[in-house]
Design a protein that fits this description.
Length: 129
């Protein structure tokens, strides 16, 4: 079963297209965090963003850069926040959200770093890089 985003690319589900090239598609999110909230996707269906081969990942971010510049110019926002989530739709995508204040993109409360645990975790992750 094709992902909902593949169905959008194929025109089976309507979308508000923002930009498109041979390999990528950008369209407005149906539940925007802010006006202009845009999703940028590769047309090729891959689940997680970091599953993309390096060249396709780079091309997707370059396409997103073009879209972000257009969103910033059009909305007059201060920053375009880019977020990768992916829990709802298993088709790689980048959220581009025009914002002018931190409150425009609320970040949940964060913890305080335990430096002993952090040093051990950092070392374990480093060993896998
Ligand atoms: P996530 O996979 O958690 O990054 O979230 C998927 C995003 O896709 C959500 O922000 C949804 O609002 C958005 N979304 C889901 N279906 C559609 C659709 N048909 N058109 C536009 N955006 C959609």
């Amino acid at each position: 079963m094709a992902s909902i985003f593949t169905q959008i690319v194929q025109g089976e589900i309507p979308s508000h297209r923002v930009h498109e090239d041979e390999a990528h598609y950008a369209f407005l999110d149906i539940n925007p965090v802010q006006p202009g909230h845009t999703l940028v996707i590769p047309k090729r269906e891959v689940d997680e963003l970091f599953d993309l081969p390096a060249d396709e990942l780079a091309a997707l971010w370059q396409f997103a850069q073009v879209v972000a510049a257009a969103l910033k110019a059009e909305t007059g926002c201060a920053r375009v926040v880019s977020v990768v989530v992916g829990y709802e739709v298993p088709h790689a995508h980048i959220h581009l959200i025009p914002t002018s204040h931190l409150e425009d993109f609320p970040i949940p409360p964060r913890g305080t770093l335990d430096h002993t645990a952090a040093a051990a975790l950092a070392a374990r992750v480093h060993a896998r890089t």
